Amino acid sequence: MIKIAxxxxxxxxxxxxxxxxxxxxxGADYLHLDIMDGHFVPNISYGPAIVQSLRKExxxxxxxxxxxxxxxxxxxxxxxxxxxxxxxxxETCPHLHRTIQNIKELGVKAAVAxxxxxSLGLLEDILPEVDMVLLMSVNPGFGGQKMIxxxxxxxxRLRQLAILEGWELDIEIDGGIGLENVAxxxxxxxxxxxxxSAIFGAADIGNxxxxxxxxxxxxxxxxxxx
Length: 226
Description:
Blueprint: E1 3-6, H1 16-25, E2 30-36, H2 48-55, E3 61-67, H3 75-81, E4 85-89, H4 96-105, E5 109-114, E6 132-136, H5 151-165, E7 170-174, H6 182-188, E8 192-195, H7 197-200, H8 205-224
Parallel strand pairs: 1-8, 2-3, 3-4, 4-5, 5-6, 6-7, 7-8
Helix pairs in contact: 2-3, 5-6, 6-8
């Protein structure tokens, strides 16, 4: 199932509630929330207080992407704030299986992310335990970057593996996704599509959500239907 996940990082920070309401009204599925600490990635974004504030106003699924070091220190706080899913980076978690189990014990979905230059092999033994894998298609830290095309090969390999093993695995792609390449991402096997500036930077935010879903669904029907 295709899921559209606008990224809050690209929204107007002075007008968050209204912009989140617009994407919700337009039929977005997830709100993608990038949490950055200035250490793992070269930027700082926002914390649990923003998540909690928006949770009061929205029924969207809150997809919280923890681009931070020692993420386990903040799991409970983000779940209390309203996260529906916590995604950690494999690069920051030396005890990844334990980390994923700790997330699940809090009653939310668990996901793992890897950067563009990180091998899928790093995830081989954790894939049966996670609800979603996030494949970064830009180097994380800043919005507005162009997608790294080679990541699509990684998406395709992961989808083929999930089909072979019979895993019901969401594959999320994040970075440089827009109307010009969303079909390619879906054709490769991604079904959760993070888009920042392509949605929040559009003249009509609601229409941008609808156009992205239309293109994604068309590609999905042509590529993955039985």
